[in-house]
Amino acid sequence: MAEQKTAQLYRMVMEQHICPYGLKSKFLLEREGFAIEDHHLTTREETDAFKDKHDVKTTPQTFIDGERVGGYDALRVYFGKDKPEKERSDTSYQPVIALFAMTFLMALGAAFVATGAWFSIRTVEWFVAFSMCGLAYLKLRDIESFSTMFLNYDLLARRWVRYGYIYPFGEALAGVLMIAGVGLWLAIPVALFIGTVGGVSVFYAVYIQKRELKCACVGGDSNVPLGFISLTENLFMIGMGLWMLVKMTA
Q: Hey, CA dihedral for 105, 175, 169, 90, is it positive or negative?
């Protein structure tokens, strides 16, 4: 039987503060099958002395086979969970993928309650409307940051800065009205207008000017690249607006 591997973990465990990255490091080491010599740094003086001794700036610190691996991020790289920092991309589609996955599941559940069927036209309608509301919320949680990033590429916002502040409210309003199926006389033109302006702006910035920008679609602090996903948000609004218009006039 193979001998169990051992790691030494040094982490802050104080009366009023337990380092969350220390707990994560301990959990990761346990998952990888290590026996852990768990050393608690219980005072600020003890922590500072440890940092000075090992010439490190942060804790936790993990040692394996007598060699220092580093903090939690370094430990994830050591076990192949993440790429080294120099190989990482500074962009990610994860936030928008997570949002679309969640709103799709919400639409499935809502459609089942309302119609008794998991998937129907109502599922698609609610998926788009829920997504619009979710994206609007992410923008509104820090509208100043969103509007600043939005100015990098939106053609109307560059001419009328206030539009960057209005946009997420318009998206939220259209989404809520479409979920409820009321006030479509207002929701349809709003969705068509902001969707068309946004779609043209993204297409021009990405495919005509060939600019590499981050998208403000999930808020001003996102690392989502401006491109197909950003265009999809606007196409969703245009498509939903046209569909609702057809339903109204049918």
A: positive
Q: 163: helix, coil or strand?
A: helix
Q: Helix, strand, coil % (nearest 5) of the chain?
A: 60, 10, 30
93-136 pLDDT tens trace? 778 888 899 999 999 999 999 999 999 999 999 999 999 999 99
Phi, psi at 46, each rounded to 5°: -65, -40
- Expressed in angstroms, the distance from the first to the final Cα of the chain is 73
How many Å apart are CA 165 and CA 169, to the nearest integer?
Answer: 8
Eight-state DSSP code of residue 87: G
How far CA 103 is from CA of 33, 100, 131, in Å, comes to: 37, 5, 6
As a whole number of angstroms, the distance between CA 153 and CA 215 comes to 9
Dist CA 144 CA 148 (whole Å): 6
Where in the chain does DSSP place strands (E)? 6-12, 35-41, 61-64, 67-70
CA distance 149 to 222: 9
| Tokens matching residue 176 | 């809520």
CB count, 10 Å around CB of 48? 11
